[in-house]
Each structure stands twice: as C-alpha cells, then as structure tokens.
Amino acid sequence: MTSFERAETEETVTCLHMTFYHPCQDNKMMFRCLNFCKREQVRADEMAKFGRDSNVCRYNLVDTRVSRIQFSLQFYRKLNSSQFCFEIKNMSKKTKLIVDQTELGYLNKIDLPWKCIICFGDYQILAEVQEGESVDYFETRLHLAEVPILQERCLPSLQPIPENGISSSMFPSQGKSPIEIDENES
User: Fold this and answer.
1) Where is the FHA domain (predicted)?
2) CB neighbours of 125 closer than 8 A, spacing ≥ 6?
3) What is the pLDDT of residues 104-149, one digit of tens each?
4) Rounded distance, CA 183 to CA 8, Å?
5) Cβ contacts of residue 14 below 8 Å, gap of 6+?
6) In what order do the strands lie in the sheet with 59-60?
7) Which of 17-26, 51-60, 176-185 has the least mean pLDDT?
C-alpha cells in the first residue's frame, strides 16, 4: 500500500460564510477586529459569540451601540439525522435581532436558515451555510460588503394585473389612460 492509500479519508467541513455591512464602516471601522477572507476553525462544542466584549466574544464589533454580547451561534446536529445546523440566539436585552423576517427578542432563538440576512441596528449580515461532514469543528469565513446587503426591494406593483397576465407597466403606454369598453361594444 502506498502512503496515499493509507491516508485517512478527508472530511469536508461545514463553513459559515458571513458578509458584513454597516453604512458607517468606512468612517468608524467597527469591523477592524474581524479577520476577513480567512477561514477560521471553531470547535463544535463552542458557541460563536458576536458583540463588543472582546473577553467573551470571539467576533468583536467595535461599536458602543452594539451589546456586549449581541448574538450567538451554536453548531449542532439534528436528532436522528446526519444534517448539521446552526442555531442563532439574540443575547441583547436592548436590540431586537431580525433573521430574514423573523424578529427575535432577548434570549429568543431559531434555526439559522441555509441562506439568510441577519439585521440589528444598522448592521446587515448575509449568512450562508456550506454543508460539511466534520463533527469536531466548523469553520467561519467573514467577508466585507461594499454596498448594502438589503437593497431597496421591489415591492409588488399596486396596479391590477389583467387576466391575460400582462401588466401595463411592462409596456409603456405613452401617457394613455385606460378606456372602459362595454363588452357588447365592438
């Protein structure tokens, strides 16, 4: 047997990609303590905490408006499953945490969706989970966004859509107003 054949089978590692944005990041540099674009290993039995207290939090945000511990992430495996997940818990008594459209108060927790946006105050974080098999640890990889993660969302048009499914907003009507026609007229 060659050394290649005797080598242990490689395990893939679950990686949590997190992209951070704050409108004042260029001026206030609240992300200066985060390691961007570098994978960082976290033991599976550790809770990953985000906040401004560098003695407690693994991921520090340098901002007095951020709680000492803003939120935490716990890595776990679902019961009777091989699927690994993250649970997110709001640790702030003063600030609500919004995960996609779910608002979490103090000590509320939910499963982190595979792809979601986490918001608190002016902070926006895009979280994306890349699946893996390792039971001993997971990895985080942090990114910095240049533009807001939450862009102006296109709200559905308040104009009625005709039964043929073609909206008049798709085709400019050159200022013409709708004309009502009796169905008996030709």
Assistant:
1) 49-121
2) 18, 19, 20, 21, 117, 118, 119, 149
3) 999 999 999 999 999 999 999 999 999 998 899 999 999 999 999 9
4) 77
5) 75, 84, 129, 130, 131, 132, 133, 134, 138, 139
6) 59-60, 47-51, 71-77, 84-90, 109-111
7) 176-185
Structure tokens at 17: 């990609």
Residue with tokens 């242990």: 8
Q: HEC states along the chain?
A: CCHHHHCCCCCCCCEEEEEEECCCHHHHCCCCCCCECCCEEEECCCEEEEECCCCCCCEECCCCCCCCCCEEEEEEECCCCCCEEEEEEECCCCCCEEECCEEECCCCEEECCCEEEEEECCEEEEEEEECCCCCCEEEEEEEECCCCCCCCCCCCCCCCCCCCCCCHHHCCCCCCCCCCCCCCCC
- Per-residue pLDDT band for 186 (boundaries 50, 70, 90) equals low
Distances from the Cα of 79 to the Cαs of 15, 76, 90, 123, in angstroms?
20, 9, 23, 33
**84-97 pLDDT tens trace:** 999 999 999 999 99
pTM over 0.70: yes
